Amino acid sequence: MVIITNTLPRLGLGLAALGRPGYINLNRSDIFDGKDANKSDTQRRSIDSMQEKANEVMQSLVSLAKENGTKPWFDCARSYGLSEKFVGDFLKNNQISASDVVVSSKWGYSYVADWNIELESGAPHEIKDHSIDNFLKQIEETKEQIGDYLNLYQVHSATFESGILTDIRVHEALASTRKEISCQIGLSVSSPVQNKIIEEALKIKTSDGERLFDSVQCTYNILEQRPADALLKAHKEGMDIIIKEGMANGRILKNEKVVEISDRLGCTPDALALAFVLAQPFKPRVLSGAVTPEQLESNAKCLKLAEELTMDDLQILYGLAMDSEQYWQDRAKLEWN
Q1: Which InterPro entries would you find in this protein's record (predicted)?
Q2: How far is CA 162 from CA 110, 118, 136, 157, 334, in A?
Q3: Which of 121, 146, 183, 274 might form a disulfide with 88, Cβ 3.0–4.6 angstroms?
């Protein structure tokens, strides 16, 4: 097992949209179905088809990482359908050693959509459970799929309501897992109060006095900037900062001002959105949600672009921030497709 300590690559691949047939990214159906026009709806999103799509993007990341002199980094979750299985199979079938890759995953949600995209009105695709029993169950499931590769295990979407921030039994189980399998422990956050959850998480110590969480995975982008101060504080205290949904599930790509700025800079809106994230003072790593090799290659241009953005460029982008409550209300309305 390889422990990672402040060595996460700057760009990783999130499997939220590749490990299951449906997700809330805009225009997902157009991207997936366009290439498979000759297949039936069932065939386009079958397990075999989705694994094939995931393999293509993962192979693209391996090639990009080699070109950049970094390790490929895959971010999964128990609730991302078969993401852990897809990653584990890909790494084993391609004989990629644990020392040559970074793999992170999350526990706390269970996938319950049974490989369907459209569910009955109000039915969830995933169910949250941050209990000790669910952790002990899901860590074993994760070990079975990617145990030899796991570098970072994260609480999936920690909230005040779920009890994870005050459950000492879970805290000690997480600390024991860190020692047992030599992986780091993190948490992911969502909602308009991400900043408050991060601040509370920083206070949590294990019985031996060490800070429990080594990293935080947070939604931060041009439209949702509220967590910035909390992320900077976490960074200064030594936590790895991981940014998810850097393109706001595709919403940023439709922002006229972002398109205008990217045209002026001679780049694509997706690269600009991720470059904005990487240029932040809390020194984040960012996850791409690409579902095709072409998308990933376009996203990866953010690495160079982040170094070229001027303060004037950043100030314009800072000015596009939305009200956080409105941001999350709009996100909640996005349809699975």
Answers
A1: AKR2_Oxidoreductase (IPR053135), NAD(P)_OxRdtase_dom_sf (IPR036812), NADP_OxRdtase_dom (IPR023210)
A2: 14, 26, 16, 9, 23
A3: 146
pLDDT given at position 30: 82
Q: Residue 212 carries which side chain, given as an amino acid letter?
A: L
pLDDT at 141: 98
What is the bridge-based pairing of β-strands 11-14 and 285-288? parallel
Token readout for 333 is: 């309305």
| Strand pairing report for 126-128 and 109-111 | antiparallel
Question: What pLDDT is stored for residue 39 in this prediction?
Answer: 74
**pLDDT of amino acid 143:** 98
HSE-CB for 322 with a 13 A CA cutoff: 18
**What's the CA gap between 91 and 134, in Å, rounded?**
27
Strand partners, 14: 75
Burial 65-79 (b: 16+ CB within 10 A, else e): beeeebbbbbbbbbb
Query: Which 3 state secondary structure label does DSSP give 45?
Result: coil
**Mind listing the domains of the chain with CATH numbers?**
11-332 (3.20.20.100)
Which residues in the chain land under pLDDT 70?
1-6, 33-37, 41
DSSP 104-166: EEEESEEE-STT-SS-STT--SEEE--SHHHHHHHHHHHHHHHTTTEEEEEEEEE-STTSTTT
**Each residue's pLDDT tens digit, 268-278:** 999 999 999 99
pLDDT value at position 3?
41
pLDDT (0 to 100) of residue 41? 66
CB–CB of 215/242 below 8 Å?
A: yes
CA atoms within 13 A on the CB side of 2: 15
Tokens of 194: 């991400």
Instruction: Identify how many contiguous H helices and E strands the chain contains and give both numbers.
Output: 14, 10
